[in-house]
Amino acid sequence: MTKGIKKIVLAYSGGLDTSAIIPWLKEHYDNCEVVAFVADVGQSRDDLVGVEQKALASGASECHIVDLREEFIKDYVYPVLKTGALYEGSYLLGTSMARPVIAKAQVELALKLGADAVAHGATGKGNDQVRFESTYAALAPQLKVVAPWREWDLRSREALLDYLKVRNIPTTATLEKIYSRDENAWHISTEGGVLESPWNASNADCWAWTVDPKKAPETPELVTVTVKAGEVVAVNGKTQSPFECLDTLNALGVKHGIGRIDIVENRLVGMKSRGCYETPGGTIMMAALRGVEQLVLDRDAFKWRQQLGLEMSYVAYDGRWFTPIRASLQAAAEALAKDVNGEVVLELYKGHVNAIQKKSDNSLYSEEFATFGEDEVYDHSHAEGFIRLYSLPSRIRALSKK
């Protein structure tokens, strides 16, 4: 343990783990002052009700609640969306993108208050410890880092509840909680319980936001999304902020069961884990952006955008946000996205979202060239020379073998 710490800023959620961390820090770090930092990244409003009182009752000297919702979507989600990043082909990186904005605000508060250290409640098994601590290292390496899950001997929910009970610290947590969930404006994840065996099918309890697609409305719903420079700027003709656009699309996606995935993923620390993720509005946004890209980006540009997305998925997942590689990937994606302007009509129906209409002033699609009917712009005979040159290496290889 690191000695000489007088003030620690803890990333606090109000849940069982961080409620126990506050008194544990005071007991094991010479009765240091513990300041609770609560990041509002769009989680359930119920999670924020009474959170300050809970922190103070657990022994915190102060509790700071910081609204990061707009910053999260505008400065972290939208840049990743421009790259089209999907971790291992399907995960829209909901937890991954939230951690750097939370850790950054935590560091800023710690520096403002003159704290010696920062702490988090991430376990030693997961990705979040890396994401938090990589941000701390990049922005304020002089701050000491305390990770209780790597130090204490409390290894179960029962042990944590007993720990709080002995100290007369109130908690609303119970032994009945089966699933571990992480929620923000972009998504909600569910892990644990029946999901720990990949042979178990997910049940209704594994999904927290979205309607079961089988029970979604029988009538499809259309939504129009406006895109400017690779960013969603309006929904159904109404211009809104990034967070507001997401909030509007979330409501539609939830209603139609959009954005559910059940995956086994490779964690950064080496093990595999299984989770059910719901990203309703984000899935709609992704479909809208890719729809405009299909019109605007040429073949090589689209291929490069795909490569950027693949690389960005690992950079974001691994917690490498405050690094030159992330800045470089983002700059490349923004260069491609400057002409990605347009409008897309999407059909939402029973868990599916399809772009059924799309237009852009920068569209490279030409009906004259693409038509199967008669045209006056394309000379079919030109294709012969193109094919001869395109296939020339194959021709030379075959001739050399003879």
TrEMBL record:
L-citrulline binds at residues 91, 96, 127, 131, 180, 189, 265, 277. It comes from the Bacteria. It is found in: Cytoplasm. Keywords: Amino-acid biosynthesis, Arginine biosynthesis, ATP-binding, Cytoplasm, Ligase, Nucleotide-binding. Belongs to the argininosuccinate synthase family. Type 1 subfamily. This is Argininosuccinate synthase. InterPro entries: Arginosuc_syn_C, Arginosuc_syn_N, Arginosuc_synth, Arginosuc_synth_CS, Arginosuc_synth_type_1_subfam, AS_cat/multimer_dom_body, Rossmann-like_a/b/a_fold. Residues 179-396 form the Arginosuccinate synthase C-terminal domain. L-aspartate binds at residues 123, 127-128. ATP binds at residues 11-19, 39, 121. It is an enzyme of class 6 (ligase). Its EC number is 6.3.4.5. Pathway: Amino-acid biosynthesis; L-arginine biosynthesis; L-arginine from L-ornithine and carbamoyl phosphate: step 2/3. Residues 7-170 form the Arginosuccinate synthase-like N-terminal domain. Homotetramer. It catalyses: L-citrulline + L-aspartate + ATP = 2-(N(omega)-L-arginino)succinate + AMP + diphosphate + H(+). PROSITE patterns: ARGININOSUCCIN_SYN_1, ARGININOSUCCIN_SYN_2. One of its GO terms (molecular function) is argininosuccinate synthase activity. It comes from Proteus cibi. PANTHER family: ARGININOSUCCINATE SYNTHASE.
